[in-house]
């Protein structure tokens, strides 16, 4: 048990991302309401974004803005600065996830206008008629 | 504009034209067709030159903005991506000529929106085959997907619902891919494919690297509609506007299969433990065999031509995934050749379907009675496409299937060989049923069929070209394999 707790505490950021991801996954697969599915999708994507960002963290490190002259004289100590690349990648991933959400919301609007509801089973019922 | 960066223009032309189509198309409809077809013709021409250069001098890479790899973003052109570049260009060009007619009929006053998305989709596909950066690949994958969501949602009736399902499934796929790339990045600290491949050669990544490959594969399988994950495809492609299905059906799945090849053999390598592991390899070939059989059986249950074709696409994805996972030279040759052949076959059948939809409106089998007499050219080309799908020599479909079967025998994967033969039989049943209905049945009395004429010339020409291409590719398979496909196989084959 102690080992298990140690395992969770040592890599707690990964456990959090997996938990969040499963919550999102459940909402996408299990929920009947289309908006809830979409929110599940957002949680799912956010979990992955958090995974990337948490991987870039270094204890006691500064933001990666350097003084040119200082660097030229003393070089860079990588332990002192945070790697900005994961954060930059996630900016792009956020843009992607926002665009997907935007398209999905526009489509939901069309579905609502056509069927008057966003519950999956009610829509299927209307389709069968 | 020099020859060394011509492939960038291949990608840039449809992207820039997309904005002009949106702007000028609002003002007047006459701009839309010449701009779209013109830019794709330019891309086709340029990609043929790029292909010539690759054959003459070998592959090359291009650093965007002169930021050196592995820090900058690289565009890589080798034999395989040159083949894909030409394939995408020619299929998109041929498809767009027919799409113009069909979109002007189906989506009046929305043509400029349709073709803006259409051109961005093609830009994304070009990007996917050119990029040498694993994270860029994710972004481009999402560009193609988002534009496809939009295009599908433009369809009538249940199309928005099908599109929403596709969004949920597609996002799961893309997120899994991103997660896999994340694991790779955490282990290697790089995103450049060649750079990662170099590091994986020497390091022992253990479980984390294997997990990353598993995540990437599952992500791509969702996107390519590999059998148990195919749920979104039939609805999405059969309810989409015909013009969108024309380009999405032949290209999207095939490009994703190309991506699987790229990831498996350009990032990981042929002798990577996870790929050579017999249980995993056999398991995936078995799933592919089940995919082929189930999708063929499902196709048999359809009563609508377009829906039937979508299930055939799912079966064909099984062919190629199985062929790649045989992991031998013959199977790989078959798979790469089948990517090319299947794109052209699917294009031919969907062009025929588009011509039929243009005249009939609805492709229920009852509607097709006596259609051979009304639309002889369309149906003749359809028959060629159908023969290629079945695998009748000398059409292209026969030769790639032949390589796949030989590869299966070589690897001793009998279940896969049986699945291929079974699926050919089913395809024969599927298409001869349509030929029977169209040729021998008297026309139904419930439809105003006497008015049905042959499709307009701008839909016939691309259709006949694609049907002729099937026979030409089939007859020139030998030299094609020797000069291009053999060189396009990933390292290690």
- SS strand fraction of chain A: under 5%
So what's the overall shape of chain B? globular
Strand content of chain B: under 5%
Computed structural class of chain A: mainly alpha
CATH topology of chain A: Helix Hairpins
- Name the structural class of chain B: mainly alpha
- Greatest interface (CB-CB under 8 A), with counts per chain: A-B, 29 and 26 residues
What is the 3D form of chain A? Answer: elongated
Low-confidence stretches of chain A: none
Helix content of chain B: over 70%
Number of domains of chain A: 1
Number of strands of chain A: 0
Main sheet makeup of chain B: 2 strands, antiparallel
Query: What is the number of helices of chain B?
Result: 20
The whole-number mean of residue pLDDT values of chain B reads 85
Q: Span between N and C termini of chain A?
A: 56 Å
How many helices of chain A in DSSP terms? 6
Radius of gyration of chain A (CA) equals 22 Å
Q: Gap between N and C termini of chain B, in Å?
A: 35 Å
Keywords:
heterodimer, A: 129 residues, Helix Hairpins, 6 helices, 75% helix, B: 493 residues, mainly alpha, globular
Please give a structural write-up:
The complex is a heterodimer of chains A (129) and B (493). With 129 residues, chain A is mainly alpha-helical. Chain A has helices at 2-10, 12-30, 34-55, 68-74, 85-115, 120-128. The mean pLDDT of chain A is 85. Chain B is mainly alpha-helical and 493 residues long. Chain B has a domain at 277-493. Chain B contains 20 helices and two strands. Chain B has helices spanning 6-27, 32-57, 79-106, 111-130, 134-153, 159-188, 193-202, 207-224, 233-239, 242-267, 273-276, 278-300, 305-325, 329-360, 371-374, 376-390, 396-411, 414-439, 457-475, 477-488; strands spanning 60-63, 74-77. Chain B has a two-stranded antiparallel sheet with strand order 1-2. The relative contact order of chain B is 0.10. The A-B interface holds A 25, 28, 34, 37-38, 41, 44-45, 48, 51-52, 55, 86, 89, 92-93, 96, 99-100, 103-104, 106-108, 110-111, 114, 123, 127 and B 135, 138-139, 142, 145-146, 149-150, 153, 158, 160-161, 163-164, 167-168, 171-172, 174-175, 178-179, 182, 185-186, 191.
């Amino acid at each position: 048990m102690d080992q298990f707790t140690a395992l969770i505490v040592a890599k707690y950021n990964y456990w959090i991302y997996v938990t969040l991801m499963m919550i999102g996954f459940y909402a996408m697969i299990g929920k009947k309401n289309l908006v809830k599915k979409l929110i599940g999708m957002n949680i799912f994507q956010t979990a992955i974004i958090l995974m990337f960002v948490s991987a870039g963290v270094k204890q006691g490190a500064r933001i990666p803005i350097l003084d040119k002259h200082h660097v030229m004289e003393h070089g860079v100590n990588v332990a002192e600065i945070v790697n900005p690349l994961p954060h930059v990648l996630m900016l792009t991933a956020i843009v992607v996830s926002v665009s997907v959400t935007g398209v999905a919301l526009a489509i939901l609007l069309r579905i609502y206008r056509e069927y008057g509801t966003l519950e999956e089973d009610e829509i299927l019922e209307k389709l069968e008629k | 504009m020099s020859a060394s960066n011509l492939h960038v223009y291949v990608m840039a032309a449809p992207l820039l034209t997309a904005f002009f189509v949106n702007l000028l198309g609002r003002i007047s409809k006459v701009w839309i067709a010449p701009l779209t077809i013109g830019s794709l013709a330019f891309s086709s021409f340029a990609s043929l030159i790029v292909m010539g250069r690759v054959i003459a001098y070998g592959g090359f890479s291009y650093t965007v903005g002169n930021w050196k790899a592995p820090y900058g973003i690289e565009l890589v052109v080798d034999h395989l991506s040159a083949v894909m570049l030409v394939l995408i260009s020619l299929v998109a060009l041929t498809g767009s000529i027919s799409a113009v007619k069909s979109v002007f009929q189906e989506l009046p006053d929305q043509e400029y929106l349709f073709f803006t998305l259409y051109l961005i989709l093609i830009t994304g596909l070009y990007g996917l085959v050119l990029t040498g950066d694993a994270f860029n690949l994710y972004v481009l994958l999402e560009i193609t997907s988002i534009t496809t969501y939009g295009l599908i949602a433009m369809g009538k009736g249940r199309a928005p619902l099908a599109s929403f399902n596709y969004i949920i499934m597609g996002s799961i796929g893309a997120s899994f891919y991103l997660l896999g790339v994340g694991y790779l990045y955490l282990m290697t600290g790089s995103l450049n494919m060649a750079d990662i491949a170099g590091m994986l050669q020497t390091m022992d990544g253990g479980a984390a690297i294997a997990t990353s490959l598993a995540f990437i594969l599952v992500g791509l399988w969702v996107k390519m509609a590999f059998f148990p994950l195919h749920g979104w495809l039939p609805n999405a492609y059969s309810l989409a506007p015909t013009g969108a299905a024309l380009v999405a059906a032949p290209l999207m799945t095939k490009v994703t299969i190309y991506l699987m090849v790229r990831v498996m053999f350009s990032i990981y390598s042929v002798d990577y433990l996870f790929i050579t592991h017999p249980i995993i390899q056999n398991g995936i070939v078995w799933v592919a065999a089940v995919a082929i059989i189930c999708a063929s059986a499902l196709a048999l249950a359809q009563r609508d031509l377009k829906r039937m074709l979508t299930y055939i696409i799912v079966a064909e994805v099984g062919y190629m995934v199985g062929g790649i996972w045989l992991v031998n030279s013959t199977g790989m040759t078959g798979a790469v050749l089948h990517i090319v052949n299947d794109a052209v076959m699917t294009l031919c059948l969907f062009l025929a379907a588009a011509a039929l939809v243009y005249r009939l409106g609805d492709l229920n089998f009852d509607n097709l009675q006596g259609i051979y007499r009304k639309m002889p050219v369309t149906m003749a080309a359809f028959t060629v496409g159908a023969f290629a799908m079945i695998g009748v020599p000398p059409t292209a479909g026969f030769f790639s299937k032949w390589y796949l079967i030989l590869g299966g025998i070589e690897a001793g994967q009998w279940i896969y060989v049986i699945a291929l033969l079974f699926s050919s039989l089913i395809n024969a049943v599927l298409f001869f049923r349509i030929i029977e209905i169209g040729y021998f049945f008297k026309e139904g009395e419930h439809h105003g069929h006497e008015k049905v004429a042959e499709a307009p010339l701008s839909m016939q020409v691309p259709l006949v070209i694609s049907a002729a291409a099937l026979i030409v590719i089939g007859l020139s398979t030998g030299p094609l394999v020797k000069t291009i496909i053999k060189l396009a196989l990933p390292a290690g084959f």
